[in-house]
Amino acid sequence: xxxxxxxxxxxxxxxxxxxxxxxxxxxxxxxxxxxxxxxxxxxxxxxxxxxxxxxxxxxxxxxxxxxxxxxxxxxxxxxxxxxxxxxxxxxxxxxxxxxxxxxxxxxxxxxxxxxxxxxxxxxxxxxxxxxxxxxxxxxxxxxxxxxxxxxxxxxxxxxxxxxxxxxxxxxxxxxxxxxxxxxxxxxxxxxxxxxxxxxxxxxxxxxxxxxxxxxxxxxxxxxxxxxxxxxxxxxxxxxxxxxxxxxxxxxxxxxxxxxxxxxxxxxxxxxxxxxxxxxxxxxxxxxxxxxxxxxxxxxxxxxxxxxx
Length: 308
Hints:
globular, alpha/beta
């Protein structure tokens, strides 16, 4: 079962969360969140933008679990005073505080210093136990930390083998600043980009340790010291994901397998290769078509010449 990591503010952070974004945005997720809680997820991730906070609140209420047994993350997603935004979120969730409140996108802060000060005040006032950011680049974090009194506890980013190389410096910086990185979209490398160079090495590792490719990807994410947010409507999938932490410790990927996934990811997703191939094919087909049309024009021209 999933464990926790200690954030830079001393609070415990469950390393896998059930997310209500992605395909669940704007939908009634009450039953799916309830199912996730029943199967062992204690960390639920939502956001203003997802329009799922009210449904998450209903699922929390229906679970009958004490507030202390659940970890709730939501995000500041729209322009406007952050304090008003978090109060609206708390009302929808039916809670007096959230465990983690994130700035969903850096562009929401026209001024990093004053914007982050509002977050620091909300933490001090007990509206959220931890504060963090989402989709922040290395440059964004450096800019924020120039004036921050309280460091972000978490930076939630899209992270998978195909963007690891471009995120490596960000991960190193976060580790140096004791900022926990949390990944979303990690399975996209094999679910939305099938047939790419990552597939073969992931499948080989899965066969060796008796795991699924999804579990190998998540185990690779954990090998980078990164937490996970994921989602599924399938109870079987939820159990598969929750088993990752045990797998990560009991049947870990070898250094060679981790390096192989790194190297395969650096080659880029198959879509890039496909686009290149299609471009070449299109160029060839256009050239062939032009040749055919030219031949037809010549034949018709000759026919006209001899007819008249």
